[in-house]
């Protein structure tokens, strides 16, 4: 970068005045200061300074009572190589692209104070006791001009919360996290972000489908970024362990640090804060539903108090519009976390968060107000979502029957959700033939039923749907599992070009991008229908 800027200055200096030359030199100097190294960042350790921690240092597996965190250092990787880099996130952090050492977990520099967070959680509806960051290590918090962001390495080694695991991550899961974090951001879905992906130069043993067939896979580390990685389970663990002193300290730290507009000195203040979290959670889940995203593992330890999508594991996008679909093989029997149930699970998880605040309340019944706020917020957001997806303008009560009919029709035959709604944005007359590319079996489309519905919709919008609103609500490109799998297959052979291409495409998911249309705007290929990694994913994905 210095060479490029130096060359521009040398070429121009014969044609510019003395003071302009000085101005350019100063601008260059400022740029080099702003886009610096990790050593140039201003590191904070507010979470460690303001909450109680583990007296023991290191990663041996153990129970850690009366604490919110344990200090631990990342494991030195044998041969770290930086393979994927988010320049957008780097610009926010004022970072130049480094080598892979720090981001692979190999070096702790001055200012960093690395730790793993302790939390618990309900997993698939059952309390799972102490969980914590089993393969995530926070490097610290970075103070920027208008915000503070936490940098965390996922897959960088053993922590006290690793239990019987190795604390590592593999390339396939790391690619899925890196690409999806950034794709969700550009879709307008609240999410954690990704800065980098580093391969570690080691092999990691994984039984991907938990079927007794472990295999060695390429190790990798993702650096992910968020205001914090505090979860619902961060509070639950202290309440269930009856450690109310630590609970109160953590709540006060969280509100003071991340919600300074709130106060938890009274019951009313606690409920207002929880209502804020409930409303942010409703916004997040309404966006999931809008774009057809299925998280796959909505345990309370995977729910961010910031209303951010967190912990990308066995996620997926609807291919066929099936509200009963879940990508998670662990959830195959009960389908607890299926697409259509995500709003209800959001409410259930929020109820567990509210329960964890009962020891701090004089009148716990007031907590119902936060849950009611979620229900009301989600209801409004759902109506707004459908109004935007269908170009209705303002939602009216009679639109409900139109939407109920649409949801039923979309399940009559196998229908691609993303393609259907994107094509609907541009049709000029209410004819189902114009949407035939969205159906997997075009010969069995219930044509009469569809044309009847389209006539109703066309009448409702008076032949002029709000097309730009529809385009803004209905992405053309999403990170389908088969697309991620193609990127993984190539990367495991050393070719990251598909990863880079998908990263580029998914930065503009609402744009036409005709050069990528034939390749990435298509239904799920038949080879991906039952392939592991496309239709079936586990919690190790």
Short description:
The chain has 17 helices and 13 strands.
Topology diagram in text:
Layout: H1 2-12, H2 18-34, E1 42-44, H3 46-50, E2 69-71, E3 81-85, H4 87-93, E4 115-117, E5 122-123, E6 126-127, E7 136-143, E8 148-154, E9 169-170, H5 171-187, E10 193-206, E11 215-226, H6 232-240, H7 244-258, H8 267-291, E12 293-294, E13 316-317, H9 342-356, H10 368-389, H11 399-409, H12 417-424, H13 447-460, H14 467-473, H15 481-491, H16 497-505, H17 514-520
Antiparallel strand pairs: 1-7, 2-4, 3-10, 5-6, 7-8, 8-11, 9-11, 10-11, 12-13
Helix pairs in contact: 5-15, 6-7, 6-9, 8-9, 8-10, 9-10, 11-13, 15-16
Structural class: alpha+beta
Number of helices: 17
Backbone shape: globular
Helix content: 25-40%
The pLDDT mean sits at 92
Query: Could you name the ranges where pLDDT drops below 50 across 5 or more consecutive residues?
Result: 1-34
User: Strand tally, please?
Assistant: 13
The H/E string reads: HHEHEEHEEEEEEHEEHHHEEHHHHHHHHH
Describe the fold and architecture.
There is one protein chain. This protein is 39% helix and 12% strand. The protein has 17 helices and 13 strands. It has helices at 2-12, 18-34, 46-50, 87-93, 171-187, 232-240, 244-258, 267-291, 342-356, 368-389, 399-409, 417-424, 447-460, 467-473, 481-491, 497-505, 514-520; strands at residues 42-44, 69-71, 81-85, 115-117, 122-123, 126-127, 136-143, 148-154, 169-170, 193-206, 215-226, 293-294, 316-317. The strands form 4 sheets. Strands 1, 3, 7, 8, 9, 10 and 11 form a 7-stranded antiparallel β-sheet that branches. The chain has a two-stranded antiparallel ribbon with strand order 2-4. Strand 10 (193-206) and strand 11 (215-226) form a beta hairpin. Helix 9 runs antiparallel to helix 10 and helix 11 packs antiparallel against helix 13 (447-460). Mean pLDDT is 92; it is low at 1-34.
